[in-house]
Write a structure and sequence with these properties.
29% of the residues lie in helices and 23% in strands. Helix 8 packs antiparallel against helix 11 and helix 11 runs antiparallel to helix 13. The chain folds into three domains: 86 residues, Uridine Diphospho-n-acetylenolpyruvylglucosamine Reductase, domain 2 (2-Layer Sandwich), CATH 3.30.43.10; 128 residues, Uridine Diphospho-n-acetylenolpyruvylglucosamine Reductase, domain 3 (2-Layer Sandwich), CATH 3.30.465; 210 residues, Vanillyl-alcohol Oxidase, Chain A, domain 3 (3-Layer(aba) Sandwich). It is α+β, with helices and mostly antiparallel strands. The protein is globular. Flavin-adenine dinucleotide (FAD) binds next to strand 3, helix 5 and strand 10.
């Protein structure tokens, strides 16, 4: 481990507006507490940055002292790359302010903002940025890798809605990225992850959403899984773009809408979120009840903010987590058989398999418009996610993910995966995730981070 003298730490402390902490000092434990409890790395120093100038100073310090750099947005990366072992962590959690301009339909937020922060501020105006399913996730990592959620069919990925960013590059430059300024960087930020610089401010386009939406959530027994998936693959074809659709294999949550004797039992789920009125939504979901026999249903108007927080408790902080994902063009018979065979083999009630139904605005974005590596024509993104509170069961749960994933790969659309749903980032995997875009990303990386200072991520190796 590189040793840093107390004089040097003192100099950094006097330079930064934010707080510098070492193990045992106030602020350190909170800053290094990340979502995935399976990761145990200990930065030598945390620079909790309150401004872009702080980030530039932290970069300069790390390079002068020979310290590895990690960057923490919301701390939800499965691989735990917010943390470096023995290096300097640039912690962006102080940068959480959000400003909304409802007339221009634009929102700006700091690099450490969570989706809960952004949703709360935008919904005051009946507006929203497409985010993820869990509101305690960071805006930064989710957006920079892509960003799938309830609004993907309505308005595309989070990254499709990024219109500008303030970026601090590892050499300390503070620059804007947009279609008009540093367009190569702007292209790369929308999908290429945290490879090019630290984003201290995001600017998003906003969409009119809610505040009330219509939720139709249906749970089915494992025995009805085959009927559900064969129904769903036809049903989703006819749905309008203006709805959010989601399938899942899970254990029933201990929520009031689930009878107590069914809590934690294995189930499959289908959810359809409507953005119009109750009557329109009723027509949309009528075929579900006419064709299938759900054991639980929750059909209700719901505030957008509550929908965004609905699964928060099912993804608590500090547990042992691992995941892998595949893109499927369609739910073929073979894919359905693989799901039905592997879903029951999970042991932890918290492990679950969300299947994002794509299409709509997501599919209409020109593939070359952004660096996002996923195929825009796919029907589904299947995320096999293991989460357990018990370390002794983690290895078995991880094996469940790998076996399930291997069984689905023969039906997948190509070999690539979604970088935000990966836990291992070997170079070949990252290349596959970006496919033909990888080389262009390498060129941008060589322009903004030629020394690969930012390598704790789905790493793009700079072009030689
Ligand atoms: C419970 C849970 C639910 C999720 N749900 C979804 C979902 O619905 N849809 C979806 O698409 N994804 C989802 N994800 C995946 C999520 O997109 C990634 O885990 C993402 O990396 C989280 O971003 P973060 O800022 O919270 O993470 P962090 O661990 O802080 O950062 C992730 C990566 O981004 C880099 N980074 C962070 N902040 C910045 C910044 N400001 N500038 C430059 N680089 C930065 C970090 O160095 C790191 O490499 C979920 C993850 C979890 C754990």
């Amino acid at each position: 481990m590189v040793m840093v003298s107390s004089d040097a730490v003192g100099r950094l402390r006097s330079t930064l507006e934010g707080v510098v902490s070492e193990p045992g000092q106030p602020g350190y434990d909170e800053a290094v507490n990340i979502w995935n409890g399976a990761i145990a790395r200990r930065p030598a120093l945390v620079a909790s940055c309150a401004s872009s100038g702080d980030v530039a100073a932290a970069f300069a310090f790390a390079q002068a002292e020979g310290l590895e750099v990690s960057v923490r947005g919301g701390g939800h990366n499965y691989a735990g790359y917010a943390l470096t072992d023995g290096g300097l962590m640039i912690d962006l959690t102080p940068l959480r302010s959000v400003t909304v301009d409802p007339d221009a339909a634009r929102a700006r937020c700091g690099g450490g903002t969570t989706w809960a922060d952004l949703d709360a501020a935008t919904q005051e105006h009946g507006l929203a940025v497409p985010g993820g399913f869990i509101s305690h996730t960071g805006v930064a990592g989710l957006t920079l890798g892509g960003g799938l959620g309830w609004l993907s069919r309505l308005a595309g990925l989070s990254s499709d809605n990024l219109v500008g960013a303030e970026v601090v590059t590892p050499d300390g430059r503070i620059m804007r990225a947009s279609e008009a300024e540093n367009a190569d960087l702007f292209w790369a930020l929308r999908g290429g992850g945290g490879n090019f610089g630290v984003v201290t401010e995001f600017e998003f386009a906003l969409h009119r959403v809610g505040p009330m939406l219509q939720l139709g959530l249906f749970l089915f027994t494992p025995a009805d899984g085959g009927a559900l998936f064969r129904f769903a693959r036809e049903f989703v074809r006819d749905l309008p773009d203006e709805c959010g659709v989601f399938l899942a294999g899970l254990s029933t949550p201990p929520e009031p809408f689930v009878p107590a004797d069914l809590h934690f039992t294995p189930a499959f789920a289908l959810a359809v979120v409507g953005f119009g009125d109750e009557a329109d939504h009723g027509k949309l979901i009528a075929p579900i009840k006419a064709s299938l026999a759900p054991i639980v249903e929750l059909v209700t108007p719901i505030p957008y903010v509550a929908l965004q927080q609905m699964f928060d408790a099912s993804a608590p902080w500090g547990l042992y987590a691992y995941e892998k994902a595949v893109y499927l063009d369609e739910l073929s018979d073979g894919a359905i058989d693989a799901i039905l065979e592997h879903q029951p083999k999970k042991m932890s009630p918290l492990s679950f398999v969300p299947m994002f139904v794509m299409g709509g605005a997501y599919a209409r974005v020109d593939d070359d418009a952004t660096a996002f590596g996923g195929n825009r024509a796919v029907g589904y993104v299947v995320n096999i996610s293991a989460t357990t509170p018990d370390p002794s069961t983690f290895e078995a749960e991880r094996a469940w993910v790998r076996d399930y994933w291997s069984a689905l790969v023969p039906y997948a659309s190509g070999v690539g995966s979604y970088v935000n749903f990966m836990t291992e980032y070997e170079e070949a995997r990252v290349r596959n995730a970006y496919g033909p875009k990888y080389e262009r990303l390498q060129q941008v990386k060589a322009t903004y981070d030629p020394g690969n200072v930012l390598h704790l991520n789905a790493n793009i190796v700079p072009e030689a």
